[in-house]
Write a structure and sequence with these properties.
Layout (H helix, E strand, L loop, with lengths): L5 H4 L1 H12 L5 E3 L1 H8 L7 E4 L3 H11 L2 E6 L4 E6 L2 E7 L1 E6 L4 E5 L3 H6 L9 E2 L5 E2 L5 H6 L9 H7 L2 H13 L8 H9 L9 H12 L5 H9 L2 H5 L8 H7 L7 H8 L4 H4 L4 H14 L5 H8 L1 H14 L6 H12 L15 H17 L6 H5 L1
Parallel strand pairs: 2-5
Antiparallel strand pairs: 1-2, 1-8, 3-4, 4-5, 6-7, 8-9
Helix pairs in contact: 8-10, 8-11, 10-14, 13-18, 14-16, 14-18, 16-18, 17-18, 17-19, 18-19
Length: 381
C-alpha cells in the first residue's frame, strides 16, 4: 500500500529523507502520520525514525543548515525544522528497562525491534519517502484498515512498561476504533487487571489523556468500557457515564467541547484529579451548577456567555433524556448578547454611594426575574 498527501510531498520531509538516505541511513515516517494517512484522517505531527544515531542526525542537520532542537535527545529524539516544517526524528530503539512510567532505551538498527516496543499495532506502521507502507509486525496495516485497536504483543507486558497505555488504549479506541466490532477483549482484560497502575501516573498526564479522549467524535463507548473495567473509577472517583451517550447524540451539531462531556460524567475533586486550569475548573463547576439550576437559558447566557449557556441547555436535555430545544438554544444566544438596560447615571442624583449600588442590584434582579425582558422605562417607571 502507498500513502500520499501534501505533508509527505512537502519539501521539508523530502529534503530530510534525501539527506539521510544520501548518507546511507534509513528514513521512515512512523506512527500517527502513517496511521492517519492510511485512515484518511487529519495529520498534525510528522514523526520520522532512522537508524542514524542522534549524533549523526545532529551532524547532518549542521551540514545541511537544518535547525535542530534536542527535544528528547537522551531518548534519541531531535526536532528538526526543515523548510519551516517541524519534524521529530527518533533513532530506532529497543527497551532495556521499564518501570511503568519511563523506559531506559538502547539505540537499534533493527526496525522490528523498534516496532516491537510500540504500544498498538496500528501505531507500528512505517512509510518511506515515496509513501510505501512498511508493516514490520505483519498485523498493523490490516488492523488500521479494519479499525482494530490491539496492543503489540502481550497487552500485560505493554502496560507494565508504561501504565499510561491503559488510558491511551481507551483514547485511541475512541478516535480510531470501530464501535461496531467492540473493544479488544484481551486489551480490556489486561487494563482491568492492571488498573491500579494508573494511580502511579501524574495527574497532568491523566488530565491530558482525558481531554483527548472526551474530544473524540464519540467517546461514550470507550468511557463505558473504562467504567466497566474499573479504570474510570480510579481516574475520576464517583464519575457516572450513563448519560454521556445522550450528550454525544445531542451535541453532534455543536462545537465539540470536552468540558461539556466531563461535566456530564462528573466525579469527585475533578479539578484536582485532572489538574484542570483555573478557567477549566470554573467552566466545569459552572456547568455542574447550571445542571441543577432553575435559571433560564437567557439568564445563563447573560451570566456565563453563549458557550457555557449552550452547554447547559444540552446537559439539561440529556439529564431528562429529552430532545434538544431549539428555542432554549436561541434564548441562550439572546442572553449572551443582552445588556442590562439601566446605568448608574439613570439613578443619580436620587441615589448615591451604597444606596446607588443596592438600587442597581435590585433593578438587575428584577430584570433577571423578567427573563431579561423588562425595558429601561419599565425598570425606572
Amino acid at each position: 500500500m502507498k500513502i500520499s498527501g501534501a505533508w509527505i510531498d512537502h519539501p521539508g520531509p523530502q529534503a530530510l529523507c534525501a539527506a539521510l538516505e544520501a548518507r546511507g541511513f534509513k528514513a521512515l515516517f512512523v506512527g500517527g502520520c502513517v496511521r492517519n494517512a492510511v485512515l484518511d484522517a487529519p495529520i498534525s505531527d510528522i514523526d520520522l525514525t532512522t537508524d542514524a544515531t542522534p549524533e549523526a542526525v545532529l551532524a547532518l542537520a549542521h551540514d545541511h543548515g537544518f535547525r535542530a532542537i534536542p527535544t528528547g535527545i537522551e531518548h534519541g529524539t531531535i526536532t528538526l525544522i526543515v523548510h519551516d516544517m517541524p519534524i521529530e526524528v527518533t533513532t530506532f530503539r529497543r527497551d532495556v528497562e521499564t518501570d511503568g512510567r519511563r523506559a531506559v532505551v538502547a539505540f537499534s538498527t533493527d526496525i522490528r525491534e523498534d516496532a516491537a516496543r510500540r504500544d498498538f499495532t496500528m501505531n507500528a506502521l512505517y512509510a518511506d519517502a515515496r509513501g510505501a507502507v512498511i508493516d514490520p509486525l505483519g498485523t498493523g496495516l490490516a488492523d488500521a484498515l479494519t479499525r482494530t485497536l490491539r496492543f503489540v504483543g502481550d497487552p500485560h507486558q505493554r502496560i507494565r512498561e508504561d501504565y499510561l497505555r491503559i488510558l491511551r488504549f481507551f483514547r485511541f479506541y475512541a478516535h480510531y476504533g470501530d464501535p461496531g466490532q467492540g473493544i479488544d477483549a484481551d486489551g480490556l482484560s489486561a487494563c482491568a487487571e492492571l488498573a491500579e497502575g494508573v494511580e502511579t501516573l501524574s495527574r497532568e498526564r491523566i488530565g491530558a489523556e482525558m481531554r483527548k479522549l472526551l474530544s473524540a467524535p464519540d467517546p461514550a463507548p470507550a468511557v463505558a468500557a473504562m467504567f466497566a473495567c474499573g479504570v474510570l473509577g480510579r481516574v475520576l472517583p464517583g464519575a457516572d457515564p450513563r448519560f454521556l451517550p445522550i450528550v454525544v447524540h445531542l451535541d453532534q451539531d455543536q462545537p465539540r467541547r470536552w468540558v461539556r462531556r466531563l461535566a456530564m460524567i462528573g466525579g469527585q475533586n475533578v479539578a484536582k484529579a485532572l489538574r484542570l486550569s483555573t478557567r477549566e475548573a470554573r467552566d466545569f463547576d459552572t456547568l455542574r451548577e447550571a445542571m441543577g439550576s432553575a435559571e433560564s437559558p437567557a439568564v445563563l447566557g447573560w451570566k456565563w456567555g453563549v458557550d457555557l449557556a449552550m452547554d447547559a441547555v444540552i446537559l439539561r436535555a440529556a439529564q431528562f433524556e429529552s430532545p434538544l430545544d431549539p428555542h432554549a438554544m436561541t434564548e441562550a444566544q439572546r442572553g449572551a448578547t443582552a445588556e442590562f438596560p439601566v446605568q448608574a447615571a439613570d439613578l443619580m442624583p436620587a441615589f448615591a454611594g451604597p444606596e446607588l449600588g443596592r438600587k442597581l442590584r435590585d433593578l438587575q434582579q428584577r430584570w433577571l426575574q423578567s427573563d431579561l425582558h423588562l425595558t429601561r422605562g419599565e425598570l425606572l417607571g
